[in-house]
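Narrative progress, year one. The postdoctoral researcher (J.K.) led the effort to move from monomer predictions toward full complexes, under supervision of the PI. The following entry was the first complex the group processed end to end, covering 324 residues in total.
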Amino acid sequence: MTDPDRLTGKMIVVDHKLLADFEDRLDPAFPEKSGIQPTILGYGEISSSFVIEQMPDIAFKRMPPFPGRDAAEEYRRIVDIYCRHLKEDCGVKVLPHTTHRIENRFGEHIVYVAQPRLEAETIGNLRLKQKDFRYMAAMVARVADRILAVGRKNRDGFGLSIGIDGQISNWCFLGEASALEEPLYFDITTPLFRVNGSEQLDIRVFLKSIPSGLVWLVKWKFLQEILDRYYDTRQVLIDLAANFHKEGRQDMIDEAIAVINGRVERVGLTPPVASLTRDEVDSYYKNDAFIWALLLSLRRADRFICTRLLRRRYNFILPGKIER
Ligand SMILES: Nc1ncnc2c1ncn2[C@@H]1O[C@H](COP(=O)(O)OP(=O)(O)OP(=O)(O)O)[C@@H](O)[C@H]1O
Ligand SMILES: [Mg+2]
């Protein structure tokens, strides 16, 4: 079994030269055609995590290109600060990381985030698929407590708000249901936090993978909604339960809601968080699945136009097929 302290204290030794070589030979539109082929570990909504054969213990995430060196350095700084806030202000155990800026042969500034590679079966969504109700309840209780700790921090009035994506697929769980370790959070590449209401991450970079003609639509219709809900404790909790749909565990949703409501009541935030209902969890999922599926298909269409029709370089590793 993996020892959690081995993970939190783990050294991440990245061969920078090899990573730069990987970047220069990468075909982001068709990663399987790259000079050094990555092995995909998992798809998120935004990007993919992968392993490079020569560094098998490290999971890499490649960020969309930054407009310059300063923007890339600023992103690295924001990721570090975000993790520090989660750990020190909210008591969230965060998987260690390092970040690496590479100027590739096109003169683009690319940032890679590296983390220890986790065993697939320790990641929440696989646990959810393989384990029983008791294990699920233990995981959800732990995660809900951390989400509520973030909520408490955001309510303390000192001007700092922290966003978190509490979905089960963003946490690593070690130990059995009766002695579950504190979960490790690893989805740190969209470091959302606000100081006196102002978003510290420059989200324009993340909008780049959306076809330019449609950025206005996304900005106008969805962006604020998507961002705001990571700061809203109740919405983050709804999202945690709603994603059981995506993971094929509809059978566990009622029980998950009951566990979450139990924790909400016990922790008692002020102002209080109202209990979750099954109806709102289900309708939230329908809306959420629609938004992400729409965004992904827009990005895929853009990739097609770019690579097949215009024969231009396409610079994003898009998620593959996502089962919903
Ligand atoms: N350190 C790791 N070791 C092994 N697998 C990982 C690791 N980090 C991520 N993964 C896999 O990749 C998936 C996506 O990773 P992550 O959640 O960090 O990316 P994301 O694109 O930011 O996702 P999101 O859609 O939640 O924003 C994870 O659910 C997991 O399956
Ligand atoms: Mg994720």
